[in-house]
Write a structure and sequence with these properties.
single chain, 131 residues, mainly alpha, elongated
């Protein structure tokens, strides 16, 4: 019976994360494990850690879609929209900076990503003719 409860808990955690809910809010529900227990599962069970990471990434995508829904929602005050959207944008940029961050990085490389080729030219000046 305990194993079945644990399986159901894990299923609810993964579903909640994939839906964009926080782990804290998921674990607050009745009969759910503490956050520390979930983190222990992640640390000690690689398969669970992978499932957790995939669910978290799906939840980040769901949160990104929430931004559009919030922006399109009638009845919300503009300042309420801004605060809700900014909070989600900040969190997404911290969790997945490459995907949702605003940092633009220019990298200069040569052919096939290698070094930029350059040539150094030394010119010898004859002191007799200089001048």
């Amino acid at each position: 019976m305990a194993g079945m409860l644990r399986t159901e808990q894990r299923k609810k955690i993964l579903e909640g994360l994939a839906d964009g809910k926080s782990l804290r809010s998921i674990c607050r529900a009745q009969a759910m494990p503490a956050i520390s227990t979930v983190m222990e599962w992640c640390a000690n069970e690689p398969e669970w850690a992978e499932q957790y990471a995939r669910a978290r990434a799906a939840g980040d995508d769901a949160m990104a879609e929430d931004i559009q829904d919030i922006a399109d929602t009638d009845g919300l005050e503009p300042n309420d929209k801004r605060v809700r959207i900014d909070a989600r944008k900040w969190l997404l940029a911290k969790r997945q900076p490459k995907k949702y961050g605003e940092k633009v990085e220019n990298v200069h490389t040569g052919p096939d990503g290698g070094a930029i080729p350059h040539t150094v030219r030394h010119e010898v000046i004859d002191p007799k003719n200089a001048g």
